[in-house]
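Class, look over these structure tokens:
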Amino acid sequence: MHSVIDAHKDKSFEWGQNDCCLFASRVVDAMCDSSFEEELKEKYYDEQSAMDYINSSNGIKTAIESHLGIASNGRPKRGDVILFENEGREILGICTGTRIISMATNGLAEVDRSSIVCYWKI
């Protein structure tokens, strides 16, 4: 988990290459030896195709549930995938224990846990 987070510290946000969903999928894949990133890359490749995928899935939560199962409510633990709100947008991140780490415009950002909508146990 930490090596993937460290590798993304200075990477810029780019739809279909280095966005919040792909960042979270890379962390999950590193921890679980899964293919979540590959599954997502089959669904979209840029901003328009990402929005089309999210809209056709009736939202990001439902889109991610098709890959990770039903979301949970309550208190996430380190390594869980988090759906949170920021300025009216839903964003994916990773729980590091006390904070959420997610892709931002110019690298990773830390977000307070108070903005959590739901999470997926990893």
About this structure: The domain at 2-120 is CATH 3.90.1720 (endopeptidase fold (from Nostoc punctiforme)). The longest strand covers residues 89-95. The helical segments are 2-7, 20-32, 36-41, 47-56, 60-68. Residues 20-32 form the longest helix (13 residues).
